[in-house]
């Protein structure tokens, strides 16, 4: 008898209208036991069928109550496996952004493999699917598809569908960007801060139409519409202070947009990173405190020292916010979309990182610095810390990295000409006593 099965059910009459049904069942611990159930009280059971139904219900609950997951076999489809795997991710407490990203690629997986039974899933079939996604949707989606499929098939291995994960031997997807984000030189940083405040260069709408504000401007008649300068657009879009704060802290975009006025301490000239902005599907933007997701080391609270130019900007900004909102009432919870942040949207709600990226894309295109992204500021801060001969741990604490190696390998500028190395070698070779010439060794030919 195999695990989780039972044998022939026998009915035995106790008295007229009352029976019991019993059988042998091999439980999931491998032990075979006798199971028995009686006719329910108040039921007239002429042939024992009622007792047998009660026994069968008991056996089903007995076998399958040990697992909350739907039974997964080689006849299960990929679509059903994804449903079980996603529920597993929710139980593990995966971040909403992660679930949102996985949901996106799951649609691609289900479209290409949803009806395939797990017994038909092979490494060759998965390899062909991943390469198709890479060609049609791009390397980023293909890599995430491979990640999700690895997790799904790992669940299948745990349910004895496969003896080993069929995704393991598929070729990995290369997502190395052709151009990596570069840190800014000090003079570039100073010029950029000046430009967002003072530049009179024209700042036209992006031809891609991604900038929602630009689309609204273009709907105006040509007589009414005047292309703003970079400084004018930055004031209207509230980018100048935001970029200033980026250069002063090197925090993530989601962290910067979650700063609260009370996080700033003008006496100590510090600001505390206490939350981050996320978009939750079917809910919208929310500010989550960094205590919300303890499994994410990068979301730990940290306090940052501020340069004087950022302190002056924040003092002015907070005074302006207080004068605008003296009579406003705010909800107490810091996860509400209307919480007062240092950098709110034009309507006073949480600001969307995607919209900020679109607005900044327009400005950097106007200034001819299209390669300067939000990550550029993080790399710049890390590189300046490195150039000041501070440790990588200092940079990791500033940027909020759980691993110091991440700061060193990705964020600190590499490829700099190190003249000091040449100086060290010169001092070694040219210092000390004169080196004596060694006598030439005699060879057999010279003997």
Q: How many strands appear in the DSSP assignment?
A: 9
CATH architecture grouping of the largest domain:
Orthogonal Bundle
- What's the main sheet like? 4 strands, antiparallel
Give the distance, in angstroms, between the N- and C-terminal Cα atoms: 89 Å
CATH topology (fold) name of the largest domain = hpI Integrase, Chain A
Global geometry: elongated
CATH homologous superfamily title of the largest domain: Intergrase catalytic core
- Overall SS class: alpha+beta
Radius of gyration: 33 Å
In N-to-C order, the SSE pattern is: EEEEHHHHHHHHHHEEEEEHHHHHH
The CATH first-level class of the largest domain comes to: Mainly Alpha
Mean pLDDT: 82
Total number of helices = 16
Helix content: 40-55%
What is the number of domains?
A: 3
Percent of residues in beta strands: 5-15%
Contiguous uncertain segments of 5+ residues: 331-335
Pfam families: Phage_integrase (PF00589)
Protein name: Tyr recombinase domain-containing protein
Keywords: DNA recombination, DNA-binding
Biased composition (Basic and acidic residues): 210-219, 328-339
Summed up, what is this model?
This is Tyr recombinase domain-containing protein. The chain is an alpha+beta fold and 447 residues long.
Defining traits:
447 residues; alpha+beta; DNA polymerase, domain 1; hpI Integrase, Chain A; 3 domains; 4-stranded antiparallel sheet; 3-stranded antiparallel sheet; 16 helices; 44% helix
């Amino acid at each position: 008898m195999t695990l989780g099965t039972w044998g022939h059910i026998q009915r035995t009459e106790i008295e007229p209208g009352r029976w019991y049904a019993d059988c042998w069942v091999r439980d999931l611990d491998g032990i075979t036991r006798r199971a028995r159930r009686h006719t329910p009280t108040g039921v007239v059971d002429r042939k024992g069928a009622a007792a047998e139904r009660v026994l069968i219900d008991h056996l089903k609950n007995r076998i399958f109550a040990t697992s909350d997951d739907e039974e997964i076999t080689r006849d299960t489809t990929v679509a059903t496996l994804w449903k079980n795997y996603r529920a597993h991710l929710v139980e593990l407490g995966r971040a909403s952004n992660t679930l949102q990203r996985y949901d996106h690629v799951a649609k691609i997986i289900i479209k290409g493999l949803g009806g395939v039974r797990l017994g038909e899933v092979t490494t060759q079939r998965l390899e062909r699917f991943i390469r198709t996604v890479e060609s049609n949707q791009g390397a980023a989606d293909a890599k995430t598809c491979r990640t999700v499929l690895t997790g799904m098939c790992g669940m299948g291995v745990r349910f004895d569908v496969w003896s080993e994960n069929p995704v393991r031997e598929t070729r990995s997807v290369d997502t190395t960007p052709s151009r990596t984000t570069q840190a800014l030189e000090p003079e570039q940083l100073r010029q950029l801060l000046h430009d967002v405040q003072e530049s009179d260069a024209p700042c036209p709408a992006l031809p891609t139409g991604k900038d929602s504000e630009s689309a609204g401007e273009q709907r105006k008649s040509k007589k009414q519409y005047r292309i703003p300068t970079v400084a004018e657009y930055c004031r209207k879009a509230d980018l100048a202070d935001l970029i200033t704060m980026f250069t002063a802290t090197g925090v993530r975009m989601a962290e910067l947009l979650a700063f609260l006025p009370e996080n700033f301490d003008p006496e100590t000239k510090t600001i505390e990173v206490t939350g981050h902005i996320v978009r939750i599907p079917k809910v919208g933007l929310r500010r989550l405190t960094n205590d919300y997701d303890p499994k994410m080391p990068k979301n730990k609270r940290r306090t940052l020292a501020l340069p004087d130019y950022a302190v002056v900007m924040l003092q002015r900004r907070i005074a302006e916010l207080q004068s605008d909102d003296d009579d406003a009432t705010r909800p107490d919870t810091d996860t509400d979309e209307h919480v007062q942040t240092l950098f709110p949207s034009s309507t006073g709600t949480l600001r969307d990182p995607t919209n900020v990226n679109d607005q900044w894309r327009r400005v950097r295109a106007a200034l001819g610095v299209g390669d300067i992204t939000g990550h550029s500021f993080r790399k710049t801060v890390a590189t300046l810390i490195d150039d000041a001969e501070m440790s990588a741990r200092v940079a990791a604490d500033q940027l909020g990295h759980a691993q110091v190696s991440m700061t060193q390998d990705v964020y600190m500028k590499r490829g700099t000409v190190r003249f000091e190395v040449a100086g060290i070698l010169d001092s070694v070779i040219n210092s000390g006593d004169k080196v004596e010439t060694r006598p030439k060794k005699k060879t057999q030919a010279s003997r």
